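Feature request disguised as a bug report, sorry. It would help if multi-protein outputs had a clear separator. Right now it looks like this:
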Amino acid sequence: MKKLFELGNQYVKESSWKELALVKLCLCAMGIVIGGQVAPKYRRIVTGAAAGVFILTYIPLMIKFFRIAAEKNGESPM
């Protein structure tokens, strides 16, 4: 597993933001396809779980993004 994480880190280091955006679009599409296969009985639960994961991952990513943007503009980080 450690080698897999190292490989992932190396891939990210050698990729441009455009390539990483394509990876994210690919994963999003895969998630939509998988989500479309969920039985109507469980869709509300799956949607709620997906929304929770989105919020829990989006907030730290945006905090880091805005910190980097503030540092680049010469402002003090948050």
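(second protein starts here, but nothing in the output says so)
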Amino acid sequence: MTELTDLTLTAARDRIARGEVSAQELTEAHVRAVEGARDLNAFIAETSELAMDMAKASDDRRARGEAGPLEGVPLAIKDLFCTKGVQSTAASHILDGFTPPYESTVTANLWKAGAVMLGKANMDEFAMGSSNENSHYGAARNPWQRRGDNKPLVPGGSSGGSASAVAARAALGATGTDTGGSIRQPASFCGIVGMKPTYGRCSRFGIVAFASSLDQAGPMTRTVRDAAVMLRAMAGHDPNDSTSVDTPVPDFEAALTGDIRGLRVGIPAEYSVEGMPEEIGRLWQQGVDWIKAAGAEPVEVSLPRTAYALPAYYIIAPAEASANLARYDGVRFGHRSAEARDLQELYEQTRGEGFGTEVKRRVLIGTYVLSAGYYDAYYNKARKVRTLIAEDFRNAFESVDVLLAPTTPSAAFGVGELVDDPLSMYLNDVFTVPASLAGLPSISVPAGLSDTGLPMGLQLIGRAFDEETVLRTAGVMEDAAGFDHRPAFIAGR
């Protein structure tokens, strides 16, 4: 059983295709792994019976010669994705008991490709957070620990449960969503690969909305090749989503040629921020050395408005959240306050009881910056800054093919360490937010260990809809890094 959970997604896919293992055997091994990883609280809901039913149907399709590209591959699904007939809560009390009558387009694409659902992964409530401590169902834990220290660590957020499950070998891959870094940051913290595709590459239909102009689904896996395979299955135009772009989906796996000779890789000077730990700087330089050794040319570039990205993001994202979350009022679905005496109290008490502290904070910020007298001073100005940040990237890509930068300003931190310091928590997104504001594809690849033995990632950012170059470069960097370290949770199992 352990042998099966140690497989990568593509290795498992290939073994099933060769008839060496059945979808049911592979899924059963992962169902047991999910049960064995419950201490990590990586799942809000386990769907073991459904998983075994899906695996049997997968084996039947293969027997009929109708196998899909992900046939029999067991995945974790972030609880932000609506799954028909399976509770989907966005980790919020206000959506307790909500069972969607429809399927998100991304998960529908995965099921069409033959994938199997192991359960709904834990996350920060409504995807608002960088540590997965904001979940109504309790914090998820990172399977890694500092060397010589048993203190539990956060897996990052908001896709922390997805990252933890993949790193702990409880799923071959997982869906995540990235609004300002919520795929890449937890991927870095947990030592896995996390990719945010171009905004519009994957449909947002059926994904509970946080910030509509920023949210984008993407894969979280243990290798770059796995991410390429999973992204191809997830992506595609969707007429149900007006922000979905009608453009062909390439064979991303075929892009992994291992050859980046002649590629120009931009090194953005502004990502060397004050107070950045020395070990992050060393890792970044190591990444530069790897791409040089592979025949690519590092080129220093400037993204002059980078310093304004974080404040602009924390105006735009809460503003959109305040509008999107207005629909949760206790009238149509989800939690409804039992104490309300009239409609006004129903709204107030339902939202007061149903939303957690971080969600309330962001809704209040968003409502404030959209209010009369402050719209132009804050929200409109932030939108203009966002346009300038996108222009910086366009200018940089006139001379380079891809950008290389750190993913996060630190390795994973301890549970509870930053929970009362929201500003420090927000700073975790300092390297990931700019690409999100510009809607660009970006990937985090595990590249080394910190001085305390924790994984750290490097990030590659590409031109819009050029995921192929991003993945090709990431594959080369992954090979150079040779990251084969295992979390303490696995070693002790």
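Even a blank line would do. Unrelated, but nice: Residues 375-396 form the longest helix (22 residues).
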